[in-house]
Specification:
The structure is a homodimer of 425-residue chains.
Chain A: E1 2-8, H1 12-23, H2 25-32, E2 35-42, E3 57-58, H3 61-66, E4 72-75, H4 83-92, E5 97-99, H5 102-119, E6 123-124, H6 136-142, E7 150-154, H7 157-169, H8 173-182, H9 191-194, H10 197-211, E8 221-222, H11 230-238, E9 241-250, E10 257-266, E11 278-285, E12 289-296, H12 300-320, E13 342-351, H13 357-367, E14 372-378, E15 384-390, E16 393-394, H14 395-407, E17 411-420
Helix pairs in contact in A: 1-12, 4-5, 5-10, 7-8, 13-14
Chain lengths: 425, 425
């Protein structure tokens, strides 16, 4: 029952996985009956210190994949090249592949899953979304019989850490980012996280599984957290909301709509409780009602645990010695543009305190069929601030209203617009 | 890709499943590629109104299992007889079995899983614990590589509904039970729920999966909610706790210890947030840290969704046409007795207000090596009430101290003892 594991990538997750494969070998064998043997770890930089003995290091990933004593390939290098080629060549050799590479999956998922299905080989990716939280298998298997209506999640730990610091400690964005970088929660170049790009790739994968239809990442609307100000976090608090970077996917007869953007979330909502680098995903469907999964969204140890679960499952199937039936099936229907989705907005307007200001603002909203749910005024005179929350209306109408508000003489600035999620209608 | 489904049981969950198999046939086919055909529903009472057309009703379950057009059997009748025989005969015929029968599994799991492994057939049971919450597959597959240290869960919706009503609405136990019965959350004979028996079966199953070792239900310590008083719920509140019926399983070098009992849970703990008939399970491990799963713990629709997920997975495997590798492996090690586990207790003592009362009480605890964490006194004179919370000490020492307290002249009554969970040490 020996399974030779070839590991591509020896960084945070890969290094931890190598360590676990070596140190927990006996425990895994006892619990699962599978004798996992690490055959090698392909790394880019040969001289860096690692969590595992250097004799496992190999420098040519393409050779590791080909080695006959490698039965199963784990791809944790990230990026598209050469990961895509390596995964395809492993599948072609009939070797199961485990990957945590959301970028690769969100760009080339259909090609990779088709190849795996064609070869009757497993392609598993539990660690690609939600770090250590089991999400992929519950969505694709346990809930295979449910018509999921909506997935709402905090799927990026870095940005949730930053937003929690801004919210609780009143830090400015750049201060919170620097703190995240010091603690290793954010990379030196944080763009993928703070731009919403990482969350968008995960949202595309979750939507694909939830609705059984592939969503190309280019169809995911994306707005990051770099423009968020502590002023709005304070106002949000006063109004009973927290601010979170959310990935939202919902089903409709015109196809799924998928987006990532900051949102005001009512403080009583379960997602408002997720703090620091944790992640959480909230699923809604007609039969299950509401399901919530919470846990560590990132980090080497939790993520390596998710990979290890996939390694054990794929090994079990590999040892059964037969063509594996594909777990995920993706249709190719329409994807709905976010501009058509009904949203609610919070707006912060800097206004002149002239008579009839609110009437002029209300008439702009009215002209775009957006109605105002509530209004608060802060301050007076030329420094007056108006906070508005709208009722549900199409996103494009909100945008058009926002543009027209900018043109009003009495509006000095549309200082912030943030969507609102989960509020009572 | 046609799969004939034979359904044993047409009650709350079975009726809902039959309805879904018929109504959602096209949607399931589109999403999963599996053409599920309901071949018949075996029911005990032939004349009751059902959620599905009566032409599907059959009266002899053993014939339904044998029918060649039945490829897969779903057992939702509950109880051990004749469920056990029917499941075994289906497995013997090479037919995958899906069951939600926690009683059957907790009593005869090893026999059933051995038979399924022997025949290379799936025996799936996602719906047996946690209703619509995916728990079984995350525990047995996604977390297969984790050394889970503790499982703490609210796994019985009926008792959680009753405790929520006692806690929020100040209802007495019998009032809350009657309300649960009116709303269909509790059965006419609520014994299995309120005694902790249902939760104990689920705890045994969860422990088996978490630790890879079978725990016989007779080894699960069990205490129900029938003795709980609203007085203690009020005191608990004042001290910053809610009262929940918990299933707790933890690993130790002497084997797992598994128990079900009411417990004081700090109000900030995620399990304290679970209200009404919802369920939630909290997992702890060295690599994943903490994971939480929340959702509907009971009810026909969520539970049928969990069953349906298993039906689709088993069908996929059945269609792949090969011997299925067993998912669950159970060792046969020692089970640790609850009396050896370290616990914390809340005690409510009715005492005489004599000089030196506390000194006498403290010396009893001291004699049993239990130390007191905090004490509150309510009232004076002969009606004085003393509330104590102890530090961690072995359960059997707590019990011995409790017995000796009863013997003290100054203690009129040990009016309540409830364990405390999740508090800072």
């Amino acid at each position: 029952m020996e399974i030779g594991v070839g590991l591509l990538g020896g960084g945070t997750v890969g290094g931890e996985l190598a360590k676990r494969l070596l140190e927990d070998h006996a425990a895994i064998l006892a619990k699962s009956g599978i004798d996992l043997r690490l055959r090698g770890v392909a790394v880019r930089e040969l001289d860096k210190p690692r969590l595992f003995p250097s004799r496992y290091i190999v420098d040519r990933p393409e050779v590791l994949v080909l080695m006959p004593q490698v039965d199963l390939v784990v791809e944790l290098m990230g990026g598209v090249d050469p990961a895509r080629e390596l995964v395809l060549s492993a599948l072609d050799l009939g070797k199961p592949v485990i990957t945590a590479n959301k970028e690769l999956l969100s760009l080339h998922g259909p090609e990779l899953f088709a190849r795996a299905a064609d070869k009757g080989v497993s392609l598993l990716f539990e660690a690609a979304v939600g770090g250590g939280i089991p999400l992929i298998r519950p969505l694709s298997e346990s809930l295979a019989g449910e018509k999921i209506e909506r997935v709402t999640g905090i799927v990026n730990g870095t940005t949730n850490y930053i937003l929690t610091a801004m919210d609780s400690d009143g830090m400015a964005y750049h201060e919170a980012l620097a703190s995240a970088q010091r603690l290793g929660y954010a990379e030196a170049d944080p763009t993928a996280d703070v731009s919403g790009g990482d969350a968008a790739a995960k949202a595309a994968i979750l939507a694909g599984l939830a609705f059984g239809q592939w969503v190309n990442i280019t169809r995911v609307y994306r707005e990051g957290i770099t423009e968020l100000s502590t002023v709005d976090m304070k106002f949000a608090h006063q109004l009973g909301y927290g601010v979170k970077l959310l990935a939202v996917a919902d089903a409709s007869s015109q196809g799924p709509a998928v987006r990532v953007h900051p949102a005001l979330v009512p403080t009583g909502h379960p997602l408002a409780l997720i703090r620091g680098a944790n992640n959480g995903v909230f699923l809604e469907g007609p039969s299950i009602g509401e399901l919530l999964f919470l846990g560590p969204g990132a980090g080497g140890r939790p993520t390596a645990t998710a990979v290890l679960g996939d390694v054990i499952l794929a090994s079990r199937e590999f040892l059964a010695g037969t063509k594996v039936a594909p777990r995920v099936r993706f249709g190719n229907g329409a994807v709905r543009d976010f501009s058509e989705v009904e949203t609610q907005w919070y707006l912060r307007l800097e206004v002149r305190d002239a008579p009839g200001v609110l009437a002029q603002i209300a008439s702009v909203f009215g002209a775009h069929q957006v109605s105002i749910k509530s209004v608060w005024q802060e301050g007076r005179g030329d420094g007056a601030t108006l906070l508005l929350i709208t009722h549900h209306a199409r996103e494009d109408r909100h945008r058009a209203a926002g543009r027209d508000l900018e043109k009003l003489e009495v509006v000095r600035q549309v200082a912030a617009t943030i969507r609102v999620i989960g509020a009572s209608p």
